[in-house]
């Protein structure tokens, strides 16, 4: 059981009545200033879906992940750790700015800088994929280092120059990121001819879902294409719709649970992960399994980050046995 | 049965096989150029919900209304007419522009001008309420006449100066309209203190739902506050959520079917209605009754418009007995 | 706009980035110790549904009310007040004890005593109706005064001696309460022959929904049957299922929004209300209107309590104009 | 509590373990041969929806009513009776015949004759409205008496000569019935011009919903148009969609719970009711209130039938004049 | 982006306002006479579900596929083609005839002949599986050639002699087809003992899902059992319910996306495909992934057909590089 | 087709009208005393979910399985048998006792003893997993034999000493069982550190899902860890959520259909299975595939039991060829 501080510590409550009552944070972990200071990972919920195309509602994604996270088992049986002990702090939802997608991206960037400046690892919960541009922009500003690669897990290339009258669309986010950092794309199974040409022209390391399906050995080559430092952006539609139907633009033929987590574990063991995001959850009312998968994916990332070999920011203490 | 022209007229089809097969237009009415020319009413579907706040998904409203309209009975028993005979033409969905809400408003204005210039009455299907500003702006540009009043049926005042960082929000649409035309608001039951003060300061004719509930006589005074020419904007949340749960921001204590249609009939009999909209339908999957109500409301408006006493554009022929 | 304190007050955040980001409390109001101290009303969420009979899931009621409350307009147009200014504090969800319903009732009683001892008015959010017994028991223990009546709004008499092998069932809650305080029951339209006999034998003031429907004058007599001090328990199935389908045991022929709120206003004006509860919300996935109605009902209660004539605890300052 | 016979009477079961376990019959009442013999009312579930037009799924109506009926309170507080004591027997679902709607109508007729020949009152649960023709046909064959009127509660006139290429459609059921018996139609708010003309030409007593809404006094005249013997057919879409959204073709502006039950009570007090049906329930997954309304309506009918003119069992045989 | 002709070509519209607004056709492709003439593939939507057994609602399948198809990427990354360029024309929904299933089959046959006579390849969207008999019958009449095999992908054998009182049921469709053409059945995992015996007696090439699961090599033998010319009928329940839950009779243990598309590609490369159908989609409200899978399957078929080696009707122009 | 006895055998019904009308039992099989006597398997539905944690509603599981079972094909193609011929009798739902979980466990134990004493194999349908303790307790009391192993298929270890204030929780069921019999756990992918330690300390044969995924050979070793006599408890969340989303606590990375059924077949061939249960189905409204999977799993168990090598109770007659 996770031990929680309560605001009632100094009040006289019979039997410590509310001590287990968990706040609406990731796993119900504490949300006070002390918790922020000692946290290693900071969750940034961004309930924005202004440019979503097909099924609306990814604004409800962050909340659904947080709600489902309250049912997570604190112990991760795979790594034999309790990742919450490293400190996972949940920020309040980032307020939406509707004036234009670009201004919302800027707001995410400011939030990202706030997290990075405090020496934390940001994990953003979306919300639509365009927001990734904001967090990647904050990395660009914060780190002088150039050797960062963005690992892009998605069913879609997201490499359009413009979509629905704007270059600031979730369908263009990888294109915008490409202007900042090198990209490695995994799981793609929907793209335009123009995107296809761009991939070839720019020689973007590109791993379509169908190829990974036919040649499992390809999985091993992905890590090799990454620089020492990595940002991971996960559009949840990279998963097969059978395990993740709760996305706005599902595409058949996607990846499985062990494939994605296996890849993430490899990357965290061999590279420095500076930040991540889990985007595009559009909860289906009455269907909780996909929300829980997303929450467990966040926690798996925490577990893998916890264990990783190197780090830009040193771990203060060994938490492995606490 | 509605008779339909088909594209197969000149092809040899056994038994006129597809003649009843209705296209996905309002009531399945024809969508060719001839139909456009003879139509008196033009339906403009605007599947945009970029600034929606609570429940997302009003982008699906126009489609749901059109689908439900296919089940409408062509005959209107109340007026003893068949309103479809006056010609109801459905435009394709207006493409969404995501760059900013303001640009989408401009696009709606262009579409409105297109309809008005061809001498048709526009009925917009939303989509979010902010779009009303586009259609009202097209009226402002098209008509030199100044004596137009906007009748605003809504649960919310929509009179905020700004919301979520923008003056172009559905929560501000009545405030923006007020900069163009006088306003009469009916059915309101949610507003801010600032909006409340504005209503008093500007002496906006204002009919809260609770007052209409207590003093039914108030209904009669609404028409008197309207100028000769009227634009009617209906935020579907003006209805009670019992009959219209499929909106993004439902408010208890709303109006009933006979109250709203009774009011609309009075207005159409006594004033010139230059355009209307039915906004904010957010379909609930698996629940068709509210979608059908919205479709029938559109058709009721057509029936009332059909019968109305005067008209800026004369009716060419008497359709009453056709 | 509600002004919120944030935990980031002492951190350097560009543009006060998160200041609007609302926590998952009623209306997103502050949840720190300062907020608790200055609050007049304390919300107690009890996500327990261990003895529910028909449709399971009232455990999700408190969360759904809190989520919907975030969309409430801070200003109440009926009373022309902003009730949140009196201070509304949301406790964390009361942890569930599954060993037996009776032990859970005891836990609610302890929570109620905690609230009462700090001089606050409790408003419980359910969760199943049996929990009311816990809160009423805390009143019994806290107040020496005997002249308290429990006003019971419900579709069901809840007067069974035992149900499904236990006297601690939601179907027995009014019977258990009757052992503590006099009862006035309003809106009932389902009861057993035995309950019917008990009502007559004990001369319980009893207002079936059908009678209120036929003789509206009866509404006025309800208040007269109440003592000076009142506890109000609202089983949401007292409403008609058209406005409140999201209950475990819906019954046709129930009360309307203005009927229930009109009664509550009268009571708050003429009696001292020591506590209330809103029970038995079982959210229907994808249908937000009933959740919002429940949230608005809570806020209406706050508005009425705010304005009431007398009070066991005097109001420190006049908040009417703030 | 309803006492039930069990098949385990002669087996040695500790503590009469299963005695409360209710079978899947109306209210979980016994389904053995003894129960059939002593029953006065026989429920006939007909899960057929072969000619349904808009929303499919009325085949699931009978099952949903039976499931919901298990939550009914045995005691009817309005009549102060326990209607189940007169004996309510539930037949197994009538097997569907898909070859043609006409053959399914014939099958219903045979089932109706089976019930009538055993001296029972049939209450059919639908399933689509066309099936009513089968049960009315069985009355025509069974009773020599000619003075039977069919009371038709519906949102639609159902008076088309033919629909979708067949005279055997739910849209034509009243027209087919009219060939057998006089008709009185109540609650109609959707019809074709041809149906409208037919009503006038044949002088069918016709009570549109809008007229009942404006002139409540009309309700009293309905009974006067009925002959001594009556068959009641209820298309559930006669109700307003706010209380009954679970139909295939909802129409706004319908009747309320107390209006319909008030009318049914008057008829049962003043006329002989020879049979009834409750048709067109199309359950909405996850929404139980409308199913329960339909079940309670069936039970209300039993209560009214129970109380008519004189009773308290045993009714010997001739039910025609009771 | 797909270029679309609009009816407004000759009207003066500012900025070509509606040019992107897509009609409700497959992928929003043009639906005028010119489009019909140049199309190679013709989509025939058949919204009929008169004989469906378990879950009703396959009538909504065609519409759901068409709606989802609007989100398809025009470019097919696997074949590196843009299949829409070969011309895909969507007919209006075939009007339903309810008089009997047999008459509806006849209507489909007439529609099939209409398509075949114009030299197009029909792709039918269902709707229930029985309708396949209509399209296969049109092939039988149109082609003198005898060497056609029907490839049947399904979870069920559909080989019953009769079901629910009729030989014209979706449960009998393969039996009826067998009277016209040889059959190859793939993916079966539910059949009766009688069907099992028939398969052996008639030596029907039969590939149960479990065998394909255990011996992947079997996949290669399927094509060998097909004659030069092939009709492909796909009952969507052939897929595993994890990827395709939206069918009326789901069966666990079905096929995957790459298995089915891999097989279809092989067939299109090595055989002449004269027509296809995608049947039995019963959309689940609020769950769009299965509808999209069905739409993408249709488009995959178009891509494979586009590329195929031989053809009864020569391709006029090489579209491969356009 | 399954032949059914009807209660109408001695009544004069035209054309044996209701003979196919199936009762609401597993597969609609007879529910009379004769059927009980000749049955080999007895289905025990236990609609209890008092201690469920995450998503409520497993009380609806038994009913959903029974409803779905009516669509099962009587013939099992894998074993080439018709398992229903061995006799499958469905008891009425076990009435719920809400006083405490422990008392409900006791009630299940009594029901289990009733079944065992009549020489039948019990298959329990849940309802929550804690109920397994009741049925296992009945085995403990009934069989003197000590060599029984409980095979536990689950995503969760369920080995907590206590949960939510009680040792009688579904989260503790395996721990309670361990006090009675040895345990073999398969498919686990969520457990606490304490549970993990207990597994090691007690050397419980433990097969996490991830290991089975990586080393398929492990499957073979499971049977070797079982004693001659086996009780099988299946928490449906052992399946991957893609095929079984309808559970209260879904966990990604679970087992597939052929994996689970393959294991069950092996066990039934090599061990004596004395009883089983299928627990934790929480139906998702409108989604029938998971309910059907659970029903087919029950029937698969019957098929495997039917065929098994040895038996504590000899099979009276060879049913293999009937
Ligand atoms: Mn994507
Ligand atoms: Mn993306
Ligand atoms: Mn509004
Ligand atoms: Mn509005
Ligand atoms: Mn109640
Ligand atoms: Mn209650
Ligand atoms: Mn009707
Ligand atoms: Mn009808
Ligand atoms: Mn099939
Ligand atoms: Mn089939
Ligand atoms: Mn489990
Ligand atoms: Mn378990």
UniProtKB/TrEMBL annotation, chains A, B, C, D, E, F:
Q: Where does Mn(2+) bind?
A: 129, 154, 156, 158, 235, 237
Entry cofactor note text? Binds 2 manganese ions per subunit.
User: InterPro entries from the xrefs?
Assistant: Agmatinase-rel (IPR005925), Ureohydrolase (IPR006035), Ureohydrolase_dom_sf (IPR023696), Ureohydrolase_Mn_BS (IPR020855)
Q: Which cofactor does it need?
A: Mn(2+)
| Matches recorded under Gene3D superfamilies | Ureohydrolase domain (3.40.800.10)
Q: Biological process (GO) annotations? A: putrescine biosynthetic process from arginine, via agmatine
Q: Which family does it belong to?
A: Belongs to the arginase family. Agmatinase subfamily.
The name this protein goes by in its record: Agmatinase
A single GO molecular function, which one? metal ion binding
Q: Does the keyword RNA-binding apply?
A: no
Keyword set includes Ion transport: no
- One Pfam short name: Arginase
Return the PROSITE patterns for the record.
ARGINASE_1, ARGINASE_2
| Matches recorded under PANTHER family | ARGINASE/AGMATINASE (PTHR11358), GUANIDINO ACID HYDROLASE, MITOCHONDRIAL (PTHR11358:SF26)
**Top-level division of the source organism's lineage:** Bacteria
Q: Keyword set for this entry?
A: Hydrolase, Manganese, Metal-binding
């Amino acid at each position: 059981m996770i031990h929680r501080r309560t605001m009632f510590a100094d009040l006289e409550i019979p039997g410590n009545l509310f001590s287990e009552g968990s706040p609406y944070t990731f796993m119900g972990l504490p949300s006070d200033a002390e918790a922020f200071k000692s946290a290693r990972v900071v969750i940034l919920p961004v309930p924005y879906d202004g440019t979503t195309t097909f099924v609306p509602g990814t604004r409800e994604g962050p909340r659904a992940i947080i709600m489902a996270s309250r049912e997570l088992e604190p112990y991760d049986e795979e790594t034999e750790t309790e990742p919450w002990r490293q400190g996972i702090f949940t920020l309040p939802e980032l307020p939406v700015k509707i004036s234009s997608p670009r201004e919302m991206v800027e707001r995410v960037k400011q939030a990202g800088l706030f997290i990075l400046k405090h020496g934390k690892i940001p994990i953003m919960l979306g919300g639509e994929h365009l927001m990734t541009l904001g967090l990647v922009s904050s990395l660009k500003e914060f780190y002088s280092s150039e050797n960062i690669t963005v690992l892009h897990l998605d069913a879609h290339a997201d490499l359009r120059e413009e979509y629905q009258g704007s270059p600031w669309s979730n369908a263009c986010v990888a294109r915008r990121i490409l202007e900042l950092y090198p990209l490695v794309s995994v799981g793609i199974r929907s793209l335009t001819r123009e995107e296809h040409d761009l991939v070839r022209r720019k020689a973007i390391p590109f791993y379509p879902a169908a190829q990974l399906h036919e040649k499992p050995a390809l999985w091993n080559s992905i890590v090799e294409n990454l620089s020492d430092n990595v940002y991971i952006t996960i559009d949840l539609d990279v998963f097969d719709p059978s395990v993740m139907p709760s996305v706005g633009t599902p595409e058949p033929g996607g990846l499985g649970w062990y494939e994605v987590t296996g890849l993430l574990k490899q990357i965290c063991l061999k590279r420095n992960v500076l930040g991540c995001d889990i985007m595009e959850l559009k909860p289906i009312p009455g269907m909780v399994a996909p929300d829980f998968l997303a929450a467990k994916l966040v926690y798996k990332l925490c577990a893998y980050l916890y264990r990783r070999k190197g780090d830009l920011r040193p771990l203060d203490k060994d938490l492995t046995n606490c």
